[in-house]
Specification:
homodimer, 430 residues, alpha/beta, Rossmann fold, Alpha-Beta Plaits, six-stranded parallel sheet, binds NADP nicotinamide-adenine-dinucleotide phosphate
Chain lengths: 430, 430
């Protein structure tokens, strides 16, 4: 069965992920060969700093000219683990034009240019696989794209960023504030020196765009994803969450509207009940819930990042793409036939937890309740707490649209008796 | 892109699972067509009782002659959801011989004859897919076979039978005994009139054989799986488990030996710590942990049975197999190249919780400890409880082989001071 000609693989990038890909390609060479049906050969490694010592990598394979590498014309598979938009994008399209299939872990690029990259792959009759781009080692893209291909997915709800989950978990378990927890995450290597992409939700938003597109067989652009970071979550928010039997997670949520005619995708911190399986996802782990018509609720859990776990996902794709090459075929490409519109955040329906600082005098609750009623937002529970002439009102609503809630809050701010809106947080997973 | 010739699908069996497959094929016809690239047409439905009213099924398609149906010669895909060994086995091989690919949910058959069926598929250049055979809707076979194809799986540990999990969960949460919990499971439709296959672990053992084979790229026969049912788990066992911060689950465990040179597969009740994610799997849900070199720990969770969830898995396979047909290719077949020997239960290494009824007199503990030491089984903790001249000793061991533990227990039974061995339970998931 075994072909003698090896599959030639070029590695673009040899950092956290790439070095692990190279390592496993060497240590597990026999297994990979048996599973693909042909040996794989590392044909070249493109990096920025050619002189860096890279254990286990033949220096003769290392180059700084990634473009020349992908233009060689004899490559079967290009593994792109450089990250960012350029030069990754041009290198990938050049690889397709020169006959290679591509495996990438690049969520930022896939979320921004997935459609064009898929088109380039299809035009050249090549594969574009990127399991590693979402939730690291956790098999998610393949299950959504293939295992659930006979089902109708209605909702994807998950923790897809390990850095922020580490920070929020710290805040929850130790009572630390955001900055303190971030400092610890940085010290332990869970957060980068510039944590913006994680804590402002950009990374999770890219993953949400990718997941929504695959789950709903439609195109969801990065700009379509409503994004709120978690830098403003406070210890007080965690205290409020606890009182409700909840914790706070940064969630990526992709939903099909109830009438099935549109979808939404969003990233924001939210309270979820402690009884929800996502509530007990600790540290830098990721987990994703998928709800479908026939299969009901599925959950996928595992390490969402790290060199080795991400390399595992890359290599799973490498085996699949390698098998496709040998079989002269390609796997499933982009599936965007449903072409559903993406609704704006205003149409998202969920529950809310709102803390108001109010004057401690009679009639305030009635005033506040009237504002909610006027905006069609129905109240589930209210808790009133008075101290020193000041008082706070904690309102938890029934399901309402983001637009209706926004209107309510705007009107509340105009009430004389409302001194301020201390916090607004969505309540999910019920 | 859409071909006009539809893919012809025959349904063998139209019971709990088959009727849902037929329903979804009708209601989701457009989506299936878009995802496969050609419409699917239900070409025939084989059942035992032709006159039973079957909602949504054209009576003209129904036949009792399954053999004639699979011999038609114009079928693209045969979906086997009859169950059991015969006639399912002959029907599947006949289907291959007449040019069809096969999707099956039949764990009993796959565990017993998987190798021969895979060979028949390969000989005829056809696909054999069976995601639904293990853990219902949960994508598990595809992730193991494809997503983790670039990794080295060392362990699969899971709850793969919903009926027994329902019963154990009831015993745990209500303090009920086995019979009482079984009666409730039967009344609620979670257990069949004859629950033997579930409660004696036959169903889980079939799944363990399938999972071990795929995870370790080797052949594991049903006979290779050590199997113990859960009918002898008592309320007292749950009380002991609780004292240790554990609960009891019926686990399927597939392991690679530490030296990598052999594998084991087993099904038995075991204590697992409450902090382990499998401990909180409630009711009839299933969940499977997978541990690999690079990816670390992954977990897959969802409904392990039921008509619609199982049909979701069947239809996912149908889409994949349909795409392969259109592309003139086949997916990954059996991967048994590793050809690892399956070790016997004696070589399995784990921890044990042992309750002994002993005479309440000085020196008993020393005697008992000596027996453990003589057999090379190291003790982690001992708890001694005396009441009315009788006493009990609860011993929790460090990791030891099943053979060593067996020898220890045999020797303990011969001690005058040991009145009886009240229970032995393995401790997993630590
Ligand atoms: N790290 C994770 O846990 C993780 C998880 C999931 C997905 N990902 C994704 O995987 C990708 C790689 O991440 P990483 O953490 O491995 O990044 P990294 O450690 O920063 O490595 C980047 C690599 O790309 C090389 N490189 C940078 N610019 C280049 C250029 N212009 N030409 C050639 N090589 C260039 C670097 O070369 P030098 O070695 O010479 O600097 C380095 O080897 C990103 O898309 C990331 O989002 C990462
Ligand atoms: N039920 C689940 O939750 C579940 C989950 C995972 C996997 N599975 C697997 O799925 C398969 C089907 O299970 P099920 O629960 O759907 O079984 P079921 O409800 O008993 O249905 C069996 C079907 O097969 C038909 N049948 C029986 N003998 C036949 C024969 N000789 N020729 C033609 N048709 C025959 C029956 O016909 P009549 O309708 O005329 O009786 C019935 O339609 C089994 O392999 C099972 O292990 C089931």
């Amino acid at each position: 069965m075994m072909r003698t000609r090896p599959l030639k693989v070029a590695l673009l990038g040899c950092g956290v992920v790439g070095s692990e890909v190279a390592r496993i390609m060497t240590t597990h060479a026999d297994d990979l060969a048996a599973r693909i049906g042909a040996p794989v050969e590392l044909a070249g490694v493109a990096v920025r700093r050619p002189d860096k010592v890279r254990e286990g990598i033949d220096p003769a394979l290392v180059t700084t000219d990634a473009t020349a590498l992908v233009k060689r014309g004899d490559l079967d598979i290009v593994v792109e683990v450089i990250g960012g938009i350029e030069p990754a994008r041009t290198l990938i399209t050049t690889a397709f034009e020169h006959g290679a299939s591509v495996v990438s872990a690049n969520k930022a690029l896939l979320a921004q240019d997935g459609a064009a990259l898929h088109a380039a792959a299809e035009q050249n009759g090549r594969d574009l696989y990127y399991e590693a781009a979402v939730a690291g080692a956790i098999p998610l893209i393949r299950p959504l794209r293939e295992s659930l291909a006979g089902d109708k997915v209605n909702r994807v709800l998950g923790i897809v960023n390990g850095t922020t989950n580490f920070i929020l978990d710290k805040m929850d378990t130790t009572g630390a504030g955001y900055q303190e927890a971030l400092d610890e995450a940085t010290a332990l290597g869970y957060a980068e020196a510039d944590p913006t992409a994680d804590v402002e939700g950009f990374d999770a938003a890219a993953k949400a765009a990718i997941l929504a597109g695959i789950a709903f067989h439609t195109r969801v652009r990065l700009d379509d994803v409503h994004r709120e970071g978690m830098t403003e979550v406070t210890a007080a928010d965690f205290a409020s969450a606890k009182e409700m039997g909840c914790t706070i997670k940064l969630l990526a949520i992709c939903e099909r509207a109830e009438d099935g005619a549109s979808v939404t995708a969003r990233v924001h911190p939210a309270m979820i009940p402690l009884s929800h399986p996502l509530a007990s996802v600790r540290g830098a782990y990721n987990a994703v819930f998928v709800e479908s018509d026939a299969s009901g609720q599925l959950m996928f859990y595992g390490p969402g990042a790290g060199g080795a776990p991400t390399a595992s996902a890359v290599l799973g794709d490498l085996v699949a793409v390698g098998r496709n090459r040998l079989g002269g075929t390609t796997g499933p490409g982009e599936s965007a036939y449903a072409a559903l519109p993406v609704s704006s955040m205003g149409e998202v329906v969920t529950r809310y937890h709102i803390s108001l600082d109010v004057a401690d005098k009679p009639g305030v609750l009635a005033q506040v309740a009237t504002v909610f009623a006027e905006h069609g937002v129905s109240i589930d529970t209210v808790r009133q707490q008075g101290k020193d002439g000041e008082a706070s009102l904690v309102v938890v609503t029934h399901r309402a649209s983001d637009a209706a809630l926004g209107g309510t809050v705007e009107a509340l701010r105009k009430l004389d008796t409302v001194r301020g809106v201390a916090s607004i947080m969505r309540v999910e997973g019920e």
